[in-house]
Structure formats: C-alpha cells, structure tokens
Amino acid sequence: QVQLVESGGGLVQPGGSLRLSCAASGFTFWRYAMSWYRQAPGKERELVATITNTDGGAGYRDSVKGRFTISRDNPKNTVYLQMNNLKPEDTAVYYCKAPLPYWGQGTQVTVSS
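User: That's the sequence. What structure does it adopt?
Assistant: Structure tokens below.
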C-alpha cells in the first residue's frame, strides 16, 4: 500500500535550518509530482511547495519563497524540503503528498528561541 514517511523535523531557533525527508513507497514515485504541506495548530493545512515529476520544476507559496527548496531523488523514492532562515510562523506539522488520497504521519517543526 501507499506509504509516506516524513522525517527530519525538530526544534530550531529562528534563522536556523532543517532538511525534511519523505520516503515514499507503494506507488510509481517518478510518475507523480510531489508536494509538501504544513498545518499549524488551529489552522488549515496549506500547500508549501510542489515539484514536478518531469523537469523538476518547483513552485512555492509566497511566504517561503527564497527560503525553502524542494527537491527529489527518484531512484531513492524520496522528496526533500530544505528550509533555511526559519521563522516562528513556520512552526507546523509538515507532510509530503502525491496526488493520491494518502497522507503520512507528518513531522513536527518548531521554530522558537
């Protein structure tokens, strides 16, 4: 079955960096665009970044442009999210997703001094 396992979250000070990973299985990874979403307490889940399955083109929500970078390694069935210059408002549970009806457990990112 489809599995998405996110990792790499943690507690970091403002201005710090984290690299999230998502290991995917149970579907033909290279055929699908992949996305990262996040959900902060009391807020709706929001799309953070998407990477295509073809040319690796990426799109980002405005609030993370220039700070976050999404990438993928198709042979490893893994998608990454490099997060730099983190801000307290980036605090959330981060999820990866393919355009399929499955979610992983997410990984908690907390930005606080």
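The CA atoms of residues 2 and 102 lie 7 Å apart.
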